[in-house]
Structures are given as structure tokens and as C-alpha cells.
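Milestone M4 deliverable, item 7.
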Amino acid sequence: MMENWISRLASALKSSERSINVVIADWLTLAHHHYPIAAQNTRTVGQDIAHLLRWLEDFKQFPVGKVHLIGYSLGAHISGFAGSYLAVSGKTLGRITGFEQTVKCAHERAVHLFIDSLLNKDKQIMAYKCSDDTAFDKGYCLDCRKNRCNTLGYDIKKVHTGASKRLFLKTRSHMPYKLFHYQFRIQFINQTDKIDPTLTVSLTGTLGESESLPITLVEEISGSKTFTFLITLNTDIGDLMMTRLTWEGSPMWAHMWSTIKTMIPWAKSSRGPQLTVGKITVKAGETQRKTTFCPQTDDGMYIEPSQEKVFVRCEKPQGKRRMMKYS
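Output delivered:
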């Protein structure tokens, strides 16, 4: 009995592409063996598919160049062998898509991401070239220059390259899987005392506002440092207009410090823990737009426990006016 994802994929292909024929290769009798034997049988199945496609082109005038082979796990190997056998006779397949079993994601997740790209064409997932998970989680890789990013799934852009690429992305746990990626950079300056605060941030755009998202700092804040990390949103909030930074301190601490300052005269001139924010920059991976935020008020760069500060888009400085001489 075939697995459920096969019929789901066939239905998604037919609903997405109206003029299409979907043919399913049933090789269950050759697949239900120990893995080494099943893997060896993939060559035979690939050769049979190549024979069928040659016959369709030679006797039914259906060009091999219009064929798209899709395979999962050993089925991906079958597709590759079919393409190799056709290449020997000078014929080239239109496209091959192979899915491998993933380790970190759920079983068959790659297949379901492909189905998602067919059913939700208005929510195409973007993936980015990166060296490893650590760099991606810091938001370093949201760069689309020189084909460093691509859409995932059926409508992937064809890029001619001599080497394979590792593309990274974040997804939701259910369909539609698309998430919007942002690189968040925040600079703290002139920090004399080491502080390990609990911070949250929210983004506001022309289409909506995000929920409060926790910021995970890998080390204490001291001196002048810039922290960079990746945040993801479920929905498109449009062009970024504002961000809110909150130091999630205890209200009891804020009340206690206020009480101490009223009771002890010398405490009025001192202050409790405080952070000084230099600059906040956010880059949207999907649009490649970078936005710099400045404090909304004069004292907005200083934040204390239990406080929320608002940062708005920085106004671009006007260029110097050219001096004109009149005679």
C-alpha cells in the first residue's frame, strides 16, 4: 500500500498545474526488501522508467524534456538513474526533484514542504545560503546577492552553479510553513557594570504588529557591544516603522528602588541598573530591506528594569545644499 503523501502530492500537482499528467511508479514489490537489496533494485526501476520515457518520445511524440521526475528517499535515486540512462542515448530530462529523509525535521518534512509550495503559491518559503546553524541563528546569512537565496519547492529559481549549496530556513510546525526572517542587531554602549537582562522586542510595520519576542543574549552586556540574532514572524507585517524594546524586570524591584530613593537622601542622585542603547538595525530577509531605528524621545536610549522604550525609523539627514554663486 502506498503512503499517504504520494496521493497528496499528486493531487497538489494536478490542482496547481491544470494541463499535467501525473504517473506514479509502483515499485513496492522491489522496495519491500532489506535496504541493500532495495537500493540495488533502484537501478532496475530507473532503467525501466527510462525505457518508458524513450518509447513515449519515439512513438507518441512526447518530449522527454517536458518530464519532471520526483522521488523520495530511494525514489530520488531511481529518478537519478533514469536520468543517467536517458543521457546515454542523448536525451535530457526536463527536471529531477529528489527528497532525502531529514534528521532534525519531522519524517517526510521535505515532501510536505514541496506540497506546501504547490498549494500556497502566495506564501513561498525563502531559504538562504549559510555555513552552519550558528551563523544562521545569528541572522548573518540573510543575503540574496549572487544567488545566495532561493525560493523553496516547486517554483525554485533555476541557478546554474558548479557546486551544491546548503540553504537554511525556519518554518512553522504546520502548513502553510512560511516564516518571515529578520536579522536584529542591537548595540549597547558605555556599559560599566556587567548586566544579564531579560529583554523582549516587538516590531511594528505598515501591515501589522508582532507579538513580544524574547531576546537571547549569549553573554553579559559590558562595555560597548553589538548583539546579532535571527527572529522570525508568522505573518507579513509590511515595511518596518517602529520597534519596542522591553527590559522584563520585576515590578517589585522598580517599586522597591523608588521607595529607597525617597527614604535615603543620597540615593536620589544614584541610579539602579541601566542600559544604554546605541543603535538598532533590522534587515528583512524576504525583502532585503534594512531599517535603522532611533529613540523616539531624548532619553529613549536609556532603559531600566520594567521599562519599555520605543524606537522609530531614523530620519535620513538632508544632503548639503550646493552653494550657488550669482554674478
